[in-house]
């Protein structure tokens, strides 16, 4: 069976239990159509790049599954009519990623590093020049 990834964004005012119920409903649709959900990841409440339907944030959820094409069509149909889902996307993939997705690894790295990423100290030993210093030079 083909492999798919389905990501949906749920409204910001939903509780985490309601978001989990949406993921379970999607899982149920897939399993009723003889599909198999390989992995479900909840990426949490994250900021949007632009406002969508008066929402500045959304709950992100990703499902990795393998299922026949009619199941994907039914999943997208059910997702589209749900008021709590503001955006969704399903893509066909060649293989599922092993371990956590890039979004989950990104969160772990930022929690692990106490500083501003892995950039290190860029300035070296040079003193910082302010605008007043440039005008005087």
Automatic annotation (TrEMBL):
GO biological process: translation
UniProt entry tagged with the keyword Iron: no
CDD domains listed in its UniProt record: bS6
Residue numbers spanned by region Disordered: 96-137
Molecular functions per Gene Ontology: small ribosomal subunit rRNA binding; structural constituent of ribosome
Transmembrane segments: none
Name of a matching Pfam family: Ribosomal_S6
Keyword Cytoplasm found: no
Keywords, sorted A to Z: Ribonucleoprotein, Ribosomal protein, RNA-binding, rRNA-binding
A cellular component term, taken from the record's GO annotations: cytosolic small ribosomal subunit
InterPro entries noted in UniProt: Ribosomal_bS6, Ribosomal_bS6_sf, Ribosomal_S6_plastid/chlpt, Transl_elong_EF1B/ribsomal_bS6
Composition-biased stretches (Basic and acidic residues): 105-137
Protein family per UniProt: Belongs to the bacterial ribosomal protein bS6 family.
Summary of the function given for this chain in its UniProt record: Binds together with bS18 to 16S ribosomal RNA.
UniProt name for this protein: Small ribosomal subunit protein bS6
Organism: Edaphosphingomonas laterariae
Lineage: Bacteria, Pseudomonadati, Pseudomonadota, Alphaproteobacteria, Sphingomonadales
